[in-house]
Write a structure and sequence with these properties.
Blueprint: E1 9-17, E2 20-25, E3 31-36, H1 42-58, H2 60-65, H3 69-73, E4 82-92, E5 95-108, E6 111-122, E7 131-137, E8 140-145, E9 150-155, H4 163-167, H5 174-184, E10 187-189, H6 215-225, H7 227-240, E11 244-251, E12 257-263, E13 270-271, H8 277-289, E14 297-301, H9 312-322, E15 327-332, H10 335-338, E16 346-351, E17 357-361, H11 366-373, H12 378-383
Parallel strand pairs: 3-15, 3-16, 10-14, 14-15
Antiparallel strand pairs: 1-2, 1-4, 4-5, 5-6, 6-7, 7-8, 8-9, 11-12, 12-13, 16-17
Helix pairs in contact: 6-7, 7-8
Protein name: AAA family ATPase
Domain ATPase AAA-type core: 31-337
Pfam families: AAA_21
């Protein structure tokens, strides 16, 4: 394990965030799949990751405003702050450490405020007293200085600033910087084929946007800087969509980029706007999976949209391969996708009697495991109503 690279999220706890009044995901695998009925809270879990990413990248106020402030974030009828707890493992001086990051936010005088922000680490075995690396409230707190071995008092400019984002810009605080870079480096996907049909201004871009509207720019970047990666993408795409031979990103006279796909039976490539939705969306996903520097966490919401059902088990296999180097979170309704998932990777989300979300791991169900041991697949169990915790009909 690299000394400055978290190995992945081990657990996350969420309180008072919309439907997630009090939920926990423990012992997360490198591939984590969420399934449940419409309105059960799957997208809300996905949005928690998006909220934290935006708060670290663009500022808490920006993420807060984008969601209609506290009225759009806090659980209905709840009092007190919205809280998150994130645990991941990293290496410090060649020793494994479990890092815990806690964030509690509230509203005061119409503005967001960080009620508490705390980062601490423990030993690999979790023994001994955890050490606070940062501990802040309303813009004031302390940060541990590794060189001096002492805590230093720090005052931020505003109570809505995250200490991790502010202090993580300085080399003097390497552990804080690791966390800042880790969360701000997450990639959350809301790709649609329609957005991928754009003709943007030419210019290579290293990573696909959340909507996929810069796909031609990413293809241009791969053409120019990583042709071997693009070749691998063509290879995989042609295996999944046999008639596709190659993809090019060509610069027009007015400086815009045009995406073209070459079909094997024809001499000339066709414009992206004439290519099927499924082919374009699969191409967009492959640019993420074969990114030369993959994000530490990748989120994919409902990949089954616009894809043929036969491609979904194959897509699951591609995602499993990328999960060797990145942690992947997927939300889905698709039994075809679930058929390629292991029980320990699947979390079922349903609404409890109080209307708030409840989460259950499939591998924690004795009934599910007995049927899996007998040869059943999760996709078939979903179709037959045995994933009761996520069943829209409420079968128990």
């Amino acid at each position: 394990m690299s000394s400055d690279t978290p190995s992945g999220i081990e657990s996350i706890k969420i309180k008072n965030y919309r439907l997630l009044r009090d939920v926990s995901f423990a012992k997360l695998t490198k591939l984590t799949v969420l399934t449940g009925a419409n309105g059960s809270g799957k997208s809300t879990v996905f949005d928690v990751f998006a909220f934290l990413h935006e708060a670290f990248s663009s500022g808490l106020r920006s993420a807060w405003d984008a969601r209609n402030r506290m009225a759009g974030i806090r659980s209905v009828g709840a009092d007190g702050p919205v809280e998150f707890e994130l645990k991941y493992r990293t290496s410090v001086h060649r020793k494994s450490r479990l890092v815990t990051y806690q964030l509690a936010i509230d509203e005061e005088r119409g503005a967001p405020v960080v009620v508490e922000e705390r980062m601490r680490w423990t030993s690999a075995q979790g023994s001994g007293r955890p050490r606070d690396i940062i501990r802040f409230s309303r813009g004031q707190g302390a940060v541990w200085d590794e060189k001096s071995g002492r805590s230093e008092q720090v005052e931020l400019e505003s109570p809505d600033l995250l200490a991790v984002s502010a202090l993580g810009q300085f080399r003097a605080h390497p552990r804080v910087r690791v966390l800042r870079n880790f969360v701000s480096g997450w990639y959350l996907s809301y790709i649609s084929a329609g957005n991928s049909r754009t003709t943007p201004v030419a210019g290579p871009q290293e990573r696909l946007s959340q909507t996929g509207d810069n796909l031609p720019n990413v293809i241009q970047y791969l053409q120019e800087s990583h042709p071997e990666r693009l070749g691998r993408i063509f290879e995989v795409l042609s295996q999944r969509v046999p008639h596709v031979e190659r993809v090019t990103s060509d610069t027009l006279a007015d400086g815009r980029l045009l995406l073209r796909l070459k079909d094997r039976p024809f001499d000339e490539p066709v414009l992206a706007r004439f290519v099927s939705d499924g082919t374009l969306k699969l191409l967009a996903y492959l640019t993420i999976f074969y990114d030369p520097t993959p994000p530490p966490v990748i989120g994919i919401e409902e990949p089954e949209n616009q894809l043929h059902p036969s491609l979904l088990p194959i897509l699951a296999d591609e995602i499993r391969q990328v999960s060797a180097s990145a942690q992947v979170l997927v939300t889905t309704h698709s039994p075809d996708f679930l058929g390629a998932i292991y029980p320990q990777e699947l979390w079922m989300i349903g609404r409890g009697p109080d209307g708030f979300a409840e989460v259950t791991r499939a591998s924690d169900s004795q009934l599910i495991m007995e049927m899996i041991d007998a040869g059943a697949q999760l996709g078939a169990l979903w179709n037959e109503g045995f994933l009761a915790a996520a069943d829209p009909a409420g079968i128990r």
